[in-house]
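tool_log.txt
---
The assistant was asked to compare two proteins side by side. It first ran the structure predictor on the initial sequence, then on the second. Raw inputs and outputs are pasted verbatim so the downstream comparison step can read them without reformatting.
(1)
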Amino acid sequence: MVNHLFLRVMAGALIAAAWMVAPAMARCDELDGNSGRIMEQVVQSPAQDAEAVLDFWTDARMREAVADSGSLPPIAQKVITPDGDASGYAQVEPPYTINDPYAVKTGMLFSELPDGQLSTCSASVVISRNKLLILTAAHCVYNYSGQSWLRNVLFIPAYNASAENIAEQIPLGKWPLNQSFILKGYAPHTTDTDVAVASVFPQPNGERVEDVVGGGFLPKVSEENEDFHLVKIYGYPGGSYLDGKQRFCWAHAWAMQGDTSLNTFANCPNIGGNSGGPNIVDGRQPEVVGVVKGVFGSQTRLRESLFGVVYRFAQIAKSPIEENPDEVLAFWTDERMDAAWPSHNMPGRPLLGPPLLEGADQSGYVRMPAPYAEHRLSRMSGILFYREANNGGVGHCSAAVITSGSKSLVVSAAHCVKNFGWREMMMFVPAYDGAATGKQRVPLLKWPVRQAFIPYEGAGGRADDDVAVARLYPENVPIGPSVTVEQLVGGGFDPRMSEDETFLPSVKILGYPSAWIPGDGPYALAVQRRCDSPAISDVGNPGLVAPYCATQGGNSGGPLVWDHDSTVEPQVVGVVHNTSTHARLKPSTFGVIYEAADAESDSPH
């Protein structure tokens, strides 16, 4: 492995000059493309109260909702469903949990309209990192005419209202929705915008819906010209059925000229109540390619430029509490900051190559010159203090200020903000110097974290996804407007994103390592250090490897900085993970949380 890495470094050095001329990584301001920024497209509902939703849906209300769903079913032009009726639909044989692997992943979606009327739709479980996501139609969670979210939305997988006992009616439990996510420009009947992704609450015992149904459907995105020879539509059509039974219909799905939706009218005309049901394509892993839109036989196609951004955004995990900044500042006395150092006693991992910096120690690091506030890279880097929620212990990671519209963001590692649970009393201190006293120790103030964002629950366990963005409270000043961290430190690192294999001839790793130097013992002081190394990535390894810098505890979350051109702001390309592979800033993970942290909206229009 070591020899392999050295060969890649040497080969990469030969193309370093080409990289300096034409880098192949995407900056934040280059990610908009044709689809616009994510936060300009996606909007989320307020969180529901799980207990209130469960209390609302009595057996009587569920029966009333089923009896109200749907309209008269139209006649199919050609029925291709085995044993299908005149509309093309056939009943799923109960019990659904035993007889049909697609039916167990599909369920009924109950809701209350703004006027108090009860309603039903269909929905299905989709594969996700957090195992809590369902897919449905936007009009099943949002009332366009009333410009408001539906209330008391509840998902019941494999629901069968006609079963004789409760165990078969509700075999897999009730799942209140937590939040719903739709496209900001959604309007009924518009092409491919009538789609929603929603997160459900876990069960009280911690079970997640994807595990309970045996895995979700794999979303398959397609663009306007792709047809599907056979899709299987599952859901709960109302019409004259009104029995709360799950049905399926087979159809040829094709794109009409001038319309990117999937057309299935000839075989499966849509019926009220079936809205939001999945369009499934058979395969080793069953895929969902669209959802029932509710207009004739038109299905919302899952497009990367529309559904894709909603799907990724829905998986974001956010720290649940916006802590009082005054309480955070009061908590972090000098004594507690000292106690947070060192919190790591594991040896650093050995180098895979010789140190590049003159005077570097055996881990490849040199101590940054003080005072840090006088140096551009040092003042944009800092220490992230935290308290553990489970035992009250204090610790630290590293972090860095990044450029943003809010001018209030820092980047770090996901495991620095959420380990066994969300960490508490998080506070960022730029240019922190634990060897100094007085103002030189905290030269650029203390900045409590308002809220932290990670790509999904458990992201800290994967090197390539171990990234977090935290939004800081502004600093209130006696005279004039509030000051942001980016304003005070004089800028931030410009996030530079990439998904593919890359070679960077030299990155600077900045942070506050506290683990042992092999053979020398631990670092004694909380001071800022730097290590330089090429950054490389192997095929099949989406993270970045810096072979000339030993991974050190306490340095997690520190930026990998590409500072190749003095005429532009230094750029951060990744953050330190706790293994030899570091987290790359990917558009599909970092890009989503970066925008979510920078700005949020609560109205689709």
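(2)
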Amino acid sequence: KSMQLMAEVIRDLKKVVFIVDDSPTGHAIKKQMESELFVYGSDVLYSIYEVGSFTEYKKIIRYIDSNDEIGAYYPAAVRLKTKSGGTVTGRDILHWTLAHSHKPAFVSSTLMCRIGAFGGVVVDFSGMGRQAARKGAQILKGTRPGDIAIEDASEFVLAFNIARAKQLGITVEPELLGAAAQLFETMDPDVTPRVFHLVIVQSDDKGCGFGADVEQGMLDELKRHGFIEGKTVKICRFNMKTRQTYRTPKQIHERGLAALKKVYRADPDLVITLGDTAAKEVMLPLVDSSYPVLFGSTMLPPEWYNNYRKFMNNRSNPGHNVSGITGEFQYAKGLKFVKVLFPKAKNIVLIHSGAITWKENFHSLLEQELGDCNSECGFTSIQLKEVSTVREFKELILKYNTDPNVDLVSAVFPAGLTYEDGSVCPVSEIVEWVVAHQTKPDFTFSDSWVRYGYLMAVAIDFEATGHQLGRQVLAVQRGNDPGDMAVQSPEDSYLVINRARAKRLGISLPVSILEAAGKVYDKMEPGKAH
């Protein structure tokens, strides 16, 4: 009866999904559904899903909502387990369902219609009461209960929630409305379908760091698919501000706790962490929670985080509730190309900031990568220097400017450096100083830093990795579980050259090098560094 009604109400209905829970009642309902739908026969396709947990159920609802082939669904799950071992019962299941679905739910009771479900062929409980009264009368007249047949409900009626129909943009024909025994014109206040809801936690200040570029790429990808902030997607943001404001381990941990509180209050459909600090302080505590989590722009390999708390079996099969796109630099490729461009170079120095919050791991990573590259790339030595203040940084650059034994100098990531009074120097000021004062050829591992004024890089494009992350966000929105989605590395790396920087350094770039470059910048923009 419900299938017949769905076909009448939903034009060009192609497919319907029924959902039951994994309980004795659910098994019985599923068996009845299979029996009746087999006899009914229809051009409308249907699937019956049996779910054992609220997490599975949510995944099915998201899948239904994102699949254009599915025109309606029939939620019949009445009791589901949570990951914490608790139980979610029918009313709460229905409330969540109606708040997260933009398709009509056909149901079996007037109570569900009253709450906000679209409608259905429902049991007439008044009629059921009359059936029960007739049996009671037989017993009062002396009939043994065991001699009275057990019956199914014999009376069914149509019920619709007009408010929900209007909300979903569905017109119910007047004949059906006239035939309905129950019409509801209001809904529970918390069942209005909400737009896809994200919480984005950034390690840095607003607009700072690679995470800002990744977020922009992600938003551009979502926009391409019709998800526009403020209209079809809601975004709450939390900037941890760990580069300039909250820098001690205690402060950073407290910022992580504050970010987690915002996640719990917002109760989003997806949490996104951008940057290494956000990954450690927010992504890891949410492992195996009810929230899908994606990460991006992490300089450290995901295996480092897996050592703190296991969130993946391996990169191709994470297996928990977390996936993402790494932001790992192309160290080996970059250094090999430095040797191609400067074949006579023997000694290079890399300077990195000891003020970044994940400096110990980053220093170890650089040592490992540089050790692997040293012999392969043909350099005599690759020195790694760590500084924490602006004064130390400038002194090193000026020192190596005049050192005849040093051929190239790279300030790998000069973020978070402090003045003598302890305040943090903006990255743009550091890059402006480097462009003006460093006389040795430099290189980096980021496209954007070449645009700011560094000479060259074999780089990853962080906005492009944002587009990758955006595609993972879309997959989650369609009902996919991050645990089933491979952790990805940036798809592309390419040579980037800044011709203006080469000119300032007096370097003549071969045509073959320029032709091999994926990008060539003709001006320096150190003031845009972040």
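---
observation on (2): The chain has a mean pLDDT of 88. The first strand starts at residue 15 and ends at 21.
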